Amino acid sequence: MATQLGARFLRTQGLDAAWMDARTLLRAEPGSVPGRPEVLSATCSFAPDGALEEQLEALSSLVITQGFIASDEDGNTVLLGRGGSDTSASYLAAKLRAQRIEIWTDVPGMFSANPRSTPTARLLRALHYDEAQEIATSGAKVLHPRCILPARQYRIPLHVYATQAPELEGTVLSAEGLDGAAQVKAVCTKRGITLIALESPGMWHQVGFLADAFQVFKLHGMSVDLVSTSETNVTVSLDPAANTLDNTRVAELVADLSRLCRVQVIGPCASVSLVGRNIRAILHQLGGAFEFFEEQKIYLVSQAANDLNFTFVVDENQGDRLVEQLHELLIRPVPGDRILGPTWQQLFAPPPPADIRVGPWWRVQRERLLAQLAGHDAAFVYDLDSVRSAARALRAMGSLARVHYSVKANPHRELLRTLRTEGVEFECVSQGEIERLLGLFPDLDPQRILYTPNFAPRAEYQWALERGVRVTVDNPYALSAWPELFREREIFVRVDTGVGRGHHSHVRTAGTRSKFGVPIVDLKEFARQAREAKVRVTGLQAHVGSGVFDVTSWEHTARLLGGAAQSFEEVRVIDVGGGLGVPERADQPGVNLQQLDTLLMAVRAEHPQLEVWLEPGRFLVAAAGVLLARVTQLKSKGSVRFVGVATGMNSFIRPALYGAYHEIVNLSRADEPATELVNIVGPVCESADVLGHDRLLPVTREGDVLLIANAGAYGSAMSSQYNLRPPAPEVFL
Q: Are 144 and 191 part of one and the same domain?
């Protein structure tokens, strides 16, 4: 009815639209099981059909028909299954030897991850049929793999567009793009995977075991997806998209397989796939990605024979989190790529609020910020009210006995004064930081300063102990080599929990590859050395990484330290570190402090003799600071556009060092629409001097002022005079 109404409406608009029933155009093939027709997921022949071409040519230049349905050899209606409408279009295009297929759907193409769960997923502008088929098979829902096959076989370009946003470029699938360059283009996940593990010592060198086993799968109509083999075990995956995996059918399958070997059913699981071109050639670059699996149970690993994917099967509840982590590491930060387009957020982010009073402080203070830059080409500008607000939020947590500010995030005296007024203590990592605090606050009790050095010289430990500062030891060497230094002293011990967290390998501070902390397995030996040296261990500290939003991370650390405290008679403090994530975008939720407070209160109830301390750095000051920089030059190289600004990695190295994302806006034109995709670069003579890749900005001009948000931490503190360019000065509103 819908298509007939559509055809009639088009005729009222002066278009010669004809209607044809798809059941006369597409004929379903017999089912794979004799006598059992495929009624709900039929496939059709799509060989070129000259007679059909002539029939339609004579009918009209515009033909409307249905998708999703066909007829069987007896004329009965059958369905084409999931993705059937798109598959109908592809079948008809092949039969008609079409020049082009267009699929209009609810998303503007295929993305590097599921944009509904990973908003930083990037549009894939162009893909080879093989890559698209692999992405579709690995879990992407935009196109069904069956839709791609006819287009690929007859080399018909297939374009995907968004119905609600027809101006967007979309994705084109074609035979082009096989330049041999190795690249990960998507991270995909499929849920509901069931694994069947077949184990028997007798299969070693047994001829025909696999043939016998797979014959059982065939008899039960089960399609096997992934396969992993060893001398005594074969594990296969069953995809719910291709199989009916109800308990009865799985039980029947297991019963027949059990005649051959011992069978174990594992599930529900999720597959996580890295999809791209020549995956084997870049395995050496995936070291950081593999670290994400350190704390996961991996049931199966498969590297595709066509070199298009690398797949892991893990517990189902871990799939989405791993996709987000892998995408953030391998795809989202890739600059200036001709295939990787803008992110879903950039394409569909809501416009900034019309009411200027709504939003981050720097939107409200726009005019004042522009005035502050009047005498500079670049400057860090801070809002102390934001610092106070963050400090009060943490100080309100009933589970925390103390909040220590990690001074290295930003040691500016105004920030330190503000935080002390709010009742925040301090954590230092160097003698210089301690000296700044003692000089700034002569009345400050040195015991309120937590000193956490790493590979510092002996003299620095001695200096801190003599000043009465609370010292943390994170290496057994210090205790065994210099026992007299710590004799009769109180110390804290930094513990390596074994698992690092964070958005980048450079900010994950636990695990065997990290230089920090005493491994938790060595704590009992450390406790023995401390007793022999007459050293009093009164606190345990652990910091697993930065940019963490999952509050269970600090709960896990607290429970681990609470258990470890049993090895030390005098421990009364567990310090769970910092690393609280700061939202990168307006629609990203921050750390749930209320939930964190609840979890830590539960730990305190289990260990009432212990105080819980927290030592955030970036959380307290990042959002309070912005970096302003004037636009100096503009450049285009092909389709890539560059906007140059007056300062770069000499002032703000986080994007180059960590691949960090910071929101960037044109403050001079904040009320104009963002229409240009550009790279924001600085004047430093380094290819890494990029403050932001592929950002949507209004049409920008020389002299405009750009604002880089969340620059209050690890900005000026890490700046340099590289190229003998002075870094941006610091200014306070």
A: no
